[in-house]
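worker-3 :: picked Putative transcriptional regulator
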Amino acid sequence: MDAVGLHGLAGAEAAGLHATEWYALSLLDLEGSLTSGKLSTRTGLTTGATTRLIDRLERAGYVRRTADPADRRKVVVEPVPDALAGVDAIVGPARRHIAEVIAQYTPEQQEVLFDYFARAAPAYRAASEEIRRARTER
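worker-3 :: tokens ->
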């Protein structure tokens, strides 16, 4: 876990972003777009902090705001595809190294690994929420 965290910090630094901005950009890269409310929930930031985060990412050219077609009162944050090419270049080495590691496993073992990753990610998100709740309840 430490290695993953350190890689995230190195990626953020290489992109000229703060860790939270890097994480938000990573979420948008994976999801395609999110409402500002969902981005707030996924990052654990307040709505005000999320607005400032979106402002910074928008000024840097990484995202743009659009109106939600289903509810024009909501803002959808979507990544700017050309800007994400730079992000892909930064995470490319990690993806290549991890692909080399995974390729050493049999297809059956890979299925187990991918099942673990699919189950572990929500478990870590839930644990993060518990940590945040415990901090706010103090």
